[in-house]
Amino acid sequence: MRGKFGDGEEKPDSDLHERLHAMETKVRRMREIRNSFNDQARVSADKRNSVQSQYKEHKEKIDLLLAEVKVIRSEIKLFKEKRNAIQSQLRDLITQIKGRRTEHGEKRSATAEYAQLKQEVDALEKKFETSSVGIKKEKEMVENIKRFSRRLEELEPEVVKFELVSVDLSDLDSAIKTLKAEADSAHKSMIEAVGRANAKSPEVDEVFAHRDFLKSEGDRFHIEFLEFREKANEIHSKIDELMIDVNKAKGELNMAKAERKSWMVDHNKAIAKVMKTGAQSEEVAESLTKQLLETGSLTFGGLSSEDLLSSGSSSKSSKKKNMRRINMNASRKR
Question: Which of 35, 189, 233, 287 has the greatest number of C-beta atoms within 10 Å?
Answer without folding.
Answer: 189
